Amino acid sequence: MTCKESNHRTIIILETLKRDLPKDYPWPGNVRELEQAVRSILLKRHYFGDAMVTDTDLEDTFVQGFYRGTLEAKEVLKQYCSILYKRYGTYEEVARRAKLDPRTVKKYLSN
């Protein structure tokens, strides 16, 4: 791997962590969780953290945006699918509960 490729991967990882995790994410698994996060980002292009820790933060962010009226329709679906995915762990279960096609769920969780 060249230095340029390594820098590109580092940028992808950092941008994904900023996008997918709350600013005050506590990193409950420390180094092991960071290792898991990097692996997940390189394979799936997302990482949502430990569901037990971040569910409340994600739900609070969603509710605040909802009440302020600052969420666009796409963001509502993305955040709702993220909350369901953290709770139930599969695209299929999120799709069943949200009455969406699993491909649509994947699309919202991948962006």
Instruction: List low-confidence stretches.
Output: none
- Main β-sheet, in a few words? none
Number of domains: 2
Number of E strands: 0
> In DSSP terms, counting alpha (H) and pi (I) runs of 4 or more, how many helices?
6
Mean pLDDT: 83
List the helices and strands and how they pair.
Elements: H1 3-20, H2 30-44, H3 51-68, H4 73-88, H5 91-98, H6 102-110
Question: What can you tell me about this protein's structure?
Answer:
This protein is mainly α and 111 residues long. It folds into 2 domains: 1-49, no CATH class; 50-111, no CATH class. It has helices at residues 3-20, 30-44, 51-68, 73-88, 91-98, 102-110. The longest helix is centred in the first third of the chain and has 18 residues, at 3-20. The chain starts with a helix and ends with a helix.
Give keywords.
111 residues; 2 domains; mainly alpha; globular
Give the gist of this structure.
This protein is mostly helical.
